[in-house]
Every structure is written in structure tokens, then in C-alpha cells.
Amino acid sequence: MSNSFEDLSFRDKESKHHREADSGLTKIAVTIEDGTDPRSPESDTALETISAIKCIYHVAGGVLKASDDMSFENAQVIGVTRTASVSGGVIKYYVSGRMDDSSFLFAPGAQLYLGTDGQITDTPPALNFRTKIGSALEIGAIMINIDEPIEL
Known about the structure:
The protein is mostly beta strands. It contains no helices and 12 strands. The strands form 3 sheets. It has a 5-stranded antiparallel β-sheet with strand order 1-5-4-2-3, with no helix packed on it. Strands 6-11-10-7-8 form a 5-stranded antiparallel β-sheet, with no helix packed on it. Strands 9-12 form a two-stranded antiparallel sheet. Strand 4 and strand 5 (90-94) form a beta hairpin. The model is unreliable at 1-36 (pLDDT under 50).
């Protein structure tokens, strides 16, 4: 089934959809009939087997799991995987924005960092490289906002 948008319309201030006081913009909801995420993830070739919910970095020909304990290049995160892939397969990932997953058990407001083997952790690394990945919004949700690595 192809994605199609429901009829969207602007509502007045008294309805459920309201106008932003500062900007004059109207908030509207977008629903996709088949329930897919309306944001399109990026995709690339996995150059090793990579699980979902892993930080990755780019090299010639594709992506690998990032790590805070290797090199500056390995700590340059480009995104967090949404899907898993075997070596040579296509992997999908997000570079920014909200990401929901039941495996996210971080305390709301916690700062999130790259750990070893592509893991996301709320413990800032004390050695090698510190790459901030984003922050926890609530149990089950994070906000991806990737910073450049800092050598420690």
C-alpha cells in the first residue's frame, strides 16, 4: 500500500489545532495510513553486521559501528541505526530528531554519549573520545543531536 496523507485543514484558535502565538504558524497533524514514520531515515551499506540502535560512522563504501575507544574517525558519529543489517546489506539510520524504542531506559534529561561497540550510554567516557549523541526525552524516547568528538 502506498503512503497517502489524510485531508489536512487549518483550524481556528478555538479548535484542537491551534495557532502559535509568536510565529503565526498553525500546528497540524500528519497521519500516514499504513502507520509508517513520516520521517525518512538515511540509508547506506553496512560494512559489518550492525544491530539496530547502534551509533555508526562513515568510511569509503559504507558505514561501521562507531566507538569511543579507537580513533577520532571511529568517534565521528553520523547517526543511530533504526534497522539491523548484515555486512553488505542496506542499513537505515537517523541523523537527528526524536527516536522511539522500548530499549531506551535512560532517565529523562540524561545526556547520551557514544560508548564502545556503537552503544549509546548515559555515562560520559573518561578516556579516549567523548561524542555526545543527544539526550533522553522520556523512557522509550531520545532526541538525537550529535556533536563532534572531543579528545580526552
